[in-house]
Write a structure and sequence with these properties.
The chain has 139 residues and is an alpha/beta fold. The protein has one domain: Cytidine Deaminase, domain 2 (3-Layer(aba) Sandwich). The chain is 22% helix and 35% strand. Strands 3-2-4-5-6-7 form a 6-stranded mixed sheet.
């Protein structure tokens, strides 16, 4: 189960709409070996693509360098789907490199950049196996 604040969900949706028609991406980091979500970090989609995301390598390296001395890790990896459902694609599954992380997908399939229906779903992806998780909103 992913316990997340409404503020983080709202920020992911906002980011997805701002980057539309390209996929948006980012992470939420926190202390290692916990589920304490501490900071949402937007990361530039280096591909600038409506169908694929890849973290900007310089931004990702900088974030890793910030996290290491603080004993932090990536707890959530999020990205948007612009025209498909909120379910991991084959590429999402094959490139799921954070075994400890929850994977969140924000689908703008119905609304695009405009206000309207948005689907947000969470998954665990381990060794190619996808398991959907319940999302619980924390206060």
């Amino acid at each position: 189960m992913l316990k997340i604040s409404q503020a983080y969900l709202d920020e992911m949706i906002k980011h997805a709409r701002e980057d539309f028609p390209d996929e948006a991406c980012g992470v939420i980091i926190g202390p290692e070996d916990t589920r304490d979500l501490a900071r949402l970090v937007r990361i530039t989609n280096a591909e600038r693509s409506p169908t694929y995301f890849r973290f900007d390598p310089d931004e990702r390296l900088q974030l890793s360098n910030e996290m290491f001395p603080l004993d932090q890790e990536v707890l959530v990896v999020y990205h948007s789907h612009t025209s498909t459902e909120a379910y991991p694609s084959r590429t999402d599954i094959s490139e799921a490199y954070e075994p400890q992380a929850h994977y969140v997908i924000v689908s703008l399939e119905e609304s695009g950049r405009e206000e309207g229906p948005v689907s947000v779903r969470a998954y665990r992806i381990l060794d190619g196996d996808v398991t959907e998780e319940e999302i619980t909103i924390r206060e």
